């Protein structure tokens, strides 16, 4: 209930009768939108008690409101604010009258944004996304069960009252094991932080490194939200080509020779958007450059967990980099759950400073959720899920590759990625993708397409074809619809 | 399993026998910490297949490792890396040898930190905290039940695959209703953002407003993490006194006359740390100042939901402020759950820019969790919880007030707060609180105490006595222990 005692101030010595003061106060509360059409006024007995008035005074005030059509008596429910008052248009609440207009009365610092808003459109039943996991495989029941089991423990309260900016200690310990077992990372818990996802890790690391005007090397093209983050922090982006073997490390070295470089951002596995993996040879060379120039690197390895060759290449972070590589990853994509949990790996003192900054942005994560994830890493649930999903996605990659080659081979070319959840389709330049997207939407398919892949670089004509979330039948349907759509262009 | 195929490179034309190459490569992997003491090497058959070797070669390599004591054969499990090698000390993993030393090889941007680390100590069974809810009252079962029910819906997948920086739309709509019903806020969903808690709201708002050198007015004392956030963003803090009626608004106006003020940060209900509430008179005056000087304000109302007088005063944000008041709050404290969900209210275009910035920091929240909270707001679960908790906490405030007055009245003075979860105890300056904290710790009580309350201002001698998490018996025990502790000083 609204604090009517504060809202309805009565001047007992005033010239206006008290019932009218009450009625008029209600009218302005309704006019101002504090009491909304369809809401009920408090019962007359209750209001009389709150305002220390005789009940008859309140009844008189309500009668006055009803006679003016501000309220309507509803049997057994009381006085309802009328919904059809000409004075009360819903837009009024958002319009000039009310406290929050469209524009803030003060000026804001700029935030870089993508030039083209993502083309949303109506989401069809069948969706070729940008490279997301299949939530039908997500260990959802295990997840809820783990949370339930935690709150039934006698010590459950400690998961509810505490949060630390570095994350749950148990999860940090399990993360160390997990990264050691899967990637050969040689770290201790003090090198880790549990974040809200890879994006927060990138932001934190970049905010600790970048000052206005600093040079940051990124790929061309590059993951656009990383670009925007660096620009937001004042960086000057220097772009080097990304080809089939990943980022051009010779070009990186040329830049290091010419300028003081503050940071290199690299996606070593399944680059976003192009899906290429940095070759072993370039890795060795890049490690040399990193050591030689003491080059700080953010290695974004958001997609490492899904690899389809027998021998994935370990990340740069697992090799000899002299402490220069800040390693960033996520469980969000690996698990296909809604939870957003990522991590960051760096030297101990870096992590301490990152924790101080993260505390100001966010205090810390959800301790219960982090504990649940730690238990699922420990008891092997996550490992089993990854193994299972890996197998399914590898099959889907192969199926998608076959279908795309057979049915769309005349219009698209691609390299099957070594891992990850998407195929980067280079589309015949004569074919207008935006028109294709509209065409297939009419046939029940949402085809993910974004101009943003070319943020800051020369636009190309490609589709990031996420195959992981579609089973064999759905992949067949999707490719067939695209084939038909091309025919209609 | 580690990617042995990448890690163990064999030179088939080399001078060393292949089994020795394999063994030596394992030794360096163990030395480098990539394979840890107690870990198992892959079965010989599996490794042979991975490396395309004869199995006998692998067996010979493993025998060599065993004869050098690097590994120990364990019946039915295979080859375990020895745990007692003199060459392998656990610290080696963290020490100079390994990739991540203590210090990053590059320089970092500074992050302001609190001068005194929080005195942690061993947590005793009985804890007087800083003002946290009682998790024993938290709607935990309802919460898990709601999440379970969501994932059993046919459309569950949409909660798992999407996230937006402004938050779940259903929760935004329910938030509008909730804030209108409880605080008379007159807003539309476009004025809202769902954040990770009040701290993130403060950070986002401040980052959009503050440029290096800008003047920001804060209370003296003030919530220290807000101070640090503004300083992190380059602000110059101007402090005005906080007395029993809240922040000194005349002092605010004096500053506005003299300087261009970028931002005022105010906690209008149950100020942190002093628990005072801004008086109605000062509110009116402050609103005038806000309109007159077009003063941007962050109103941090983290604790509004718990008020113990019949008529809580509505926030500044509910009054006529010309769109200048950015309103910040949280469900984390209200619910006593581990989930960290807060909100921010501001003009529509401000929120759009805030969303662009939040995307770079965090992409967005946990959509499933936000949907669950929306449902719990809609079905009244949250409302019922707040009503129940309010009643319990009001009783506890009164009990705590009585006990403190009767048993500690000679040593402490305080004003019973109108709401919130803590009493601000002014302690006799002759009494050394740090010594008292140590004394009562020996008697099984953790007494929250922090030097940080005086960050940036003249140190005082006070304890923030959180009463909400303790029932009558526990409050009695806590106060008795403090009484005894004082006797022993």
How many domains is the backbone of chain A divided into?
A: 3
How would you classify the quaternary structure? homodimer
Summarize the amount of helix of chain A as a percent range: 40-55%
For the terminal residues of chain A, how far apart are their CA atoms?
A: 59 Å
Ranges of chain A where pLDDT stays below 50 over 5 or more residues in a row are 86-98
CATH topology tier name of the largest domain in chain A: Aspartate Aminotransferase, domain 2
Count the helices of chain A. How many? 18
Largest interface: A-B, 112 and 112 residues
| Biggest sheet, spatial arrangement of strands of chain A | 4-11-10-9-8-5-6-7
* CATH top level assignment of the largest domain in chain A: Alpha Beta
Largest sheet of chain A: 8 strands, mixed
> So, the CATH homologous superfamily of the largest domain in chain A?
Type I PLP-dependent aspartate aminotransferase-like (Major domain)
Structural class of chain A: alpha/beta
Number of strands of chain A: 15
Tell me which CATH architecture of the largest domain in chain A applies here: 3-Layer(aba) Sandwich
Radius of gyration of chain A: 29 Å
Mean pLDDT of chain A: 89
Strand content of chain A: 5-15%
Please state the overall shape of chain A, judged from the principal axes of the Cα atoms. globular
GO molecular function, one term (chains A, B): DNA-binding transcription factor activity
Protein name (chains A, B): GntR family transcriptional regulator / MocR family aminotransferase
InterPro entries (chains A, B): Aminotransferase_I/II_large, HTH_trans_reg/aminotransferase, PyrdxlP-dep_Trfase, PyrdxlP-dep_Trfase_major, Tscrpt_reg_HTH_GntR, WH-like_DNA-bd_sf, WH_DNA-bd_sf
Keywords (chains A, B): Aminotransferase, DNA-binding, Pyridoxal phosphate, Transcription, Transcription regulation, Transferase
């Amino acid at each position: 209930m609204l604090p009517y005692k504060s809202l309805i101030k009565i001047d007992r010595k005033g010239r206006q009768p008290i019932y009218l003061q009450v009625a008029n106060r209600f009218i302005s509360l309704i006019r101002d939108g504090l009491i909304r059409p369809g809401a009920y006024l408090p019962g007359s007995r209750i209001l009389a008690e709150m305002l220390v008035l005789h009940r008859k005074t309140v009844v008189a005030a309500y009668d006055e409101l009803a006679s003016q059509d501000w309220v309507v008596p509803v049997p057994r429910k009381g006085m309802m604010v009328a919904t059809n008052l000409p004075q009360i248009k819903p837009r009024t609440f958002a319009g000039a009258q009310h406290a929050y207009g469209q524009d803030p009365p003060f000026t804001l610092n700029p935030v870089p944004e993508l030039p083209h808003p993502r083309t949303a459109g109506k989401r069809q039943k069948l969706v070729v996304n940008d490279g997301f996991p299949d939530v039908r495989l997500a260990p959802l029941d295990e997840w809820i069960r783990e949370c339930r089991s935690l709150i039934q423990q006698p010590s459950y309260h400690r998961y509810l009252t505490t949060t630390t900016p570095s994350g749950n200690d148990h999860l940090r310990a399990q993360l160390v094991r997990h990264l050691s077992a899967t990637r050969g990372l040689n770290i201790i818990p003090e090198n880790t932080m549990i974040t809200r996802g890879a994006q927060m890790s990138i932001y934190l690391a970049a905010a600790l490194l970048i000052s206005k005007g600093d040079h940051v090397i990124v790929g061309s093209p590059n993951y656009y939200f990383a670009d925007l983050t660096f620009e937001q922090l004042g960086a000057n982006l220097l772009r080097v080509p990304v080809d089939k073997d990943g980022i051009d490390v010779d070009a990186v070295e040329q830049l290091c020779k010419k300028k003081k470089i503050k940071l290199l951002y690299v996606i070593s596995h399944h680059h976003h958007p192009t899906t290429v993996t940095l070759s072993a040879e370039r890795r060795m060379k890049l490690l040399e450059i990193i050591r030689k120039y003491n080059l700080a690197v953010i290695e974004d390895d958001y997609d490492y967990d899904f690899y389809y060759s027998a021998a994935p290449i370990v990340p740069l972070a697992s090799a000899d980099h002299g402490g220069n590589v800040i390693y960033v990853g996520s469980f969000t994509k690996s698990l296909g759950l809604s939870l957003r949990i990522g991590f960051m790996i760096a030297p101990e003192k870096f992590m301490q400073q990152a924790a101080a900054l993260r505390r100001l942005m966010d205090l810390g994560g959800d301790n219960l959720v982090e504990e649940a994830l730690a238990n699922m890493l420990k008891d092997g649930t996550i490992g089993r899920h990854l193994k299972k999903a890996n197998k399914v996605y590898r099959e889907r990659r192969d199926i998608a590759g076959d279908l795309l080659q057979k049915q769309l081979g005349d219009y698209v070319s691609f390299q099957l990625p070594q891992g990850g959840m998407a195929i980067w389709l280079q589309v015949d330049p004569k074919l207008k993708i935006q028109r294709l997207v509209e065409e297939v939407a009419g046939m029940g398919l949402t085809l993910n397409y974004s101009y943003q892949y070319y943020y800051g670089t020369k636009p190309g004509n490609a589709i990031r074809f996420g195959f992981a979330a579609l089973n064999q039948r759905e992949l067949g349907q999707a490719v067939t619809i695209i084939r038909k759509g091309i025919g209609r262009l």
